Amino acid sequence: MAIITSIGTKNYKNLTDHIKFKNLNIFIGSNGSGKSNLINCLKFLKNACTTLTDPVREVSGLQDAISQLGGSKILDNTVVSPAHISFEYEFLQLTQLPDNQPVKLFLKILIDKLSITSTLTEEHLSCDKGQERPFFYYKFHENEVGKGLISIYDEIQQKTHFEKLDNIPNNILGINSIPDLLEDTYFTPKNTTVYEVRREILDVIGNWQFYNANNMDLNQIRNAEPKMGRSDIYLSSSGENLSLVLDNLIQQSIDFEESINEAIKAILPNTRKIRTNRIGQYSLTIEWYFEGINEPFYLREMSDGTVRMLCWAVVLHSPKLPSLIVIDEPELGLHVAWMRVLATWIKKASLKTQVFVTTHSPDLLDHLTDCLDNVICFSSQDKIHFSTHQLSPELLQDKLEEGWELGDLYRVGDPDIGGWPW
User: Fold this and answer.
1) Does 197 share its domain with 233?
2) What is the mean pLDDT of each run of 10 residues along the chain (422 residues)?
3) How many CB atoms lie within 10 A of CB 23?
4) How far apart are CA 118 and CA 89, in angstroms?
5) Is residue 371 part of a domain?
């Protein structure tokens, strides 16, 4: 499945960097250093691609996504309004490009704080084929709002050329509107080179899953009794569908029940079995059995940390992993002894999909010392803006040879690591 390999921004809040990603990405840095802003760039793209226009409120999916991102407040405070904000997202491993070429989606939005408006003024999807100028699949609004170009393949001449498009809406993403735009042309999806690529990118983005330990409602998770019949395979951001997701995954994968039980035994060795059970005719709950005890325990009887670890176990051991898992501060409320287990789960999941994790926990970082190449540190550039640097074994070689762990260096505020507020 395609992965996102970089994000670049301009004039967006306090970020001034072009950040490259791998399958596993660990973000560290002080509060307010831009980690959440980076994740919000990803949420914004997902919302803009998947949120439908609301005719009642007369708000488009793109406008709603900008509003959720922060509206006019997303403009860098040091930049005079009105001004443009730009986002560039790069993707790799698309099946439509067998030679594994990167594809870039570029968005340019005009932000006017005085009138509190935002307008898409440029969008293009491009593929760099090593030419002097990138070969683009489409480019909208660049010279004139509502107009653009799209690449068309001529089967007879076996060449790609560009055709003009008019009446392109600038309040929704072009990557969403292309099927509607093609209806009024003689172009077909078959000879429109961007068609299958944009559909694959939309599928990947729509599959991204975001979790913030601070936002998970433990009381709701404990007391929820979701109805059977829904097809949920991903834990919701609040976690209230935990028993439904667990039940659906067990039904779909013959090995998942054993996998999740083995995972939980790593934190509570006296666990005998975790299973879902029906309540009444349509609802579900989770039963937790321990060695030597015949009666089950229920989530409302389990500690906060235990419930959180069950959530992370289901997310990270799922046989139906999303294209991207983003977890903010997974260490919240967990015993220090469980950090080794959590780190192992995170690394294992990253072998099968892309994982982003933000953390302030040196105890978790201790168990990620073998992943220094995957750690990105956010640090102050001028006390207003923040940039990033990637750690590496070479950077810390002398200290590693002395026996330091990554978390140890983070605890003492080692300057090579950074991530401290002073």
Assistant:
1) no
2) 94 93 96 93 94 69 90 92 96 82 93 85 80 69 92 84 91 91 89 90 96 94 90 96 96 95 97 93 93 95 96 98 97 97 98 97 97 94 86 94 95 84 65
3) 16
4) 20
5) no
Domain boundary among 206, 225, 249: 206
First to last CA, the chain: 40
Q: How far apart are CA 153 and CA 243, in angstroms?
A: 49
In what order do the strands lie in the sheet containing 354-358? 209-212, 324-328, 354-358, 24-28, 375-380, 386-390
Dig out the tokens for 223 from the structure.
């007391």
∠ CA 132-138-142, rounded to 5°: 85
Q: What angle do CA 343, 8, 135 make, to 5 degrees?
A: 120
CA–CA dist 375, 407 (Å, integer): 12
Tokens of 151: 């690449």
> 251: exposed, middle or buried (C-beta count within 10 Å: 0-12, 13-18, 19+)?
exposed
Within its chain, how far is the Cα of 262 from the centroid? 27
Domain that holds residue 235: 216-307
Which are the contacts of 375, defined by CB distance < 8 A and separation ≥ 6? 26, 27, 28, 365, 368, 390, 391, 406
Query: Token match 């030419």: residue?
Result: 131
Best CA proximity match to 332, nearest among 307, 315, 353, 355 = 307
**Encoding tokens for residue 237?**
């951001």
